[in-house]
Amino acid sequence: WLRLKLIADAGLVGLPNAGKSTFLAAVSAARPKIADYPFTTLHPQLGVVRLNATEEFVLADIPGLIEGAAEGAGLGTRFLGHVERCAVLLHLADGTQADAAGAYRTIRAELADYGHGLAEKPEIVALNKNDSMTPQARASRIKALERACGHKVMLISGATGEGVPEVLRALADQIAKTRKA
Questions:
Q1: What angle, 0 to 180 degrees and rounded to 10, lies between the N-to-C axes of helices 20-27 and 164-180?
Q2: Which of 39, 113, 141, 165 is deepest in the core (most CB within 10 A)?
Q3: Kind plus residue range of the DSSP H or E element containing 48
């Protein structure tokens, strides 16, 4: 069997409705389907992110992962291969979910269960939908997410663009670092 794998510099991972397609549409010319129900993304989407005249990278959005994705639940095994060649993963956690840290752990477990080096890839974790959280919810979810992932979590809103330039710069820097190594 031959298996086509997309070649992208960075990959978006997260649960369904974490805002991956909204983020891709906000930072590139890609126009993925965006709706408020799970599994609106049925096929991987690619977008070229242009930071300036000399810096750009390809960002891949795969369908949302669910528990058991590595064993075939949902669309997981069909599309996890598309982020195998990425230099970095952008893990988007839905800030409107009560347990963003639990969602993070679910995705990390699926990446580890799938194998192929996905769990070892550098990752940037971002709490998305900042525009939809109260200050108290934001503070508690960031704290819980930072404990779960063990490093700083970026706060963004794909819909309003808040924090997006900082995430794009972090992605570009990590891509350059990984490619250089």
A1: 90
A2: 141
A3: strand 45-50
* Model pLDDT for residues 134-181, shown as the tens digit of each residue: 999 999 999 999 999 999 999 999 889 999 999 999 999 999 998 887
* Residue 14, pLDDT score: 87
- Give me 9's structure tokens: 């510099």
| E strand or H helix that includes residue 10 | strand 10-13
Reported pTM: 0.85
- How many residues in the chain? 181
**Tell me, what DSSP letter sits at residue 40?**
-
| H or E, element range at 142 | helix 135-149
What does the mean pLDDT of the chain come to? 83
Return the structure tokens found at 180. Answer: 């250089």
Instruction: Out of 9-18, 58-67, 80-89, 131-140, pick the least confident.
Output: 58-67
Classify burial at 117, counting beta carbons within 10 Å of its beta carbon; exposed 0-12, middle 13-18, buried 19 or more. exposed
**DSSP characters for 57-111?**
EEEEE-PPP-TTGGGTSTTHHHHGGGGTT-SEEEEEEETTSTTHHHHHHHHHHHH
